[in-house]
User: Fold Lytic murein transglycosylase from Roseibium aestuarii.
Amino acid sequence: MPLHRLARPLLAAALLVATGTASHAAAQCGGDFQAFLDGVKQEAIAKGLSKRAAERTLKNAQIDRSVLARDRAQGVFKLDFLTFSKRVISQNRMDHGAKNMAKWKRVFDRAEKDYGVPAPVITAFWALETDYGGFQGDFNTVNALATLAHDCRRPHLFRPQLIAAIEMVQHGDLDPATMTGAWAGEIGQVQMLPEDIIKFGKDGDNDGHVNLKQSPADVIMTAAAFIQNLGFRRGEPWIQEVSVPSSLAWEETGLDRPKSGADWARLGVKPRSGKISNLPASLLLPQGRKGPAFLAYPNFQIYLEWNQSFIYTTTAAYFATRLGGAPVYTPGNPDPGLDDGQMKQLQTKLRDLGYDVGKIDGILGSGTRTAVQDVQKKLGMAADGWPTPELLGKL
Assistant:
């Protein structure tokens, strides 16, 4: 099933705040739904879109209560890296990915030539988002966007997407009656929002339209253009599995503590395959010092832009290396982690100690990892950022 995300709306929100329009958009929510739609139509027309396209898009729009239920209940991955990655990187997905890269090789070659993004990077997202187009979501896109734009939780995120959907209708790339996708309005085989489709959509099969639901060529070229815009650097690695010495200073690990590849090599870090690049790299230990270890290079940042979940991003980046020929990771023998209740208990204790762990939600996010690493160091434990029952007991 699709792995939905809101990374793109969050980026859109940042842009809205920067231009001072977020508060204006936020005021245009709630109340009578038809009056709300009339306001959206007038805004679209004021932006230069046709009255006909706006009316066609919105005339049958309605609130979808199931979208609101999904929005209220959405969660971030609570599975650990080994469990999640084993679940989603199946042999079937590996085989299907290899077949797709061979079948669409000319398109992938063109995408890499034009945008610098290699086939395995695109293919991993293609697999994880919709299983190569097999599960794209069955929510009516206009209803989903209208529902979330009308809802006063985050109208500044979704109202621009609804207007962008009108523009897609005007281009002939969206049928409001039949277009379906994810509950948050993402469309197509790599699950992109309307604003991003308009900005980065590419007609890979030269039929005059951008069809991310049915055209693999459009999917591949559009994904490449979008990933390039996220900051992907041509010809550079993104992640690499490594082995680490038991004597490593674990407090030096983590996304916010990069070193040059040469420095990591001097500390005894060794590649599982290939050579360590001398680019800046952070040492990631998704399940602590006894689990798999990866060097994350600058290109890893595009994964964090695509999806804010550390487990998803690390899995997607690792999956891309596998599609590119890297060996299966060495799982190691990680210390047991915490269950949901224990994680919430740990977060509460860390919060009481003055750490900013965000919401007490049982999720091992960046704030919790950073706090865990600091507390481990203060307690004289291996500061690898992996919370264990031993740590919880000491607190």
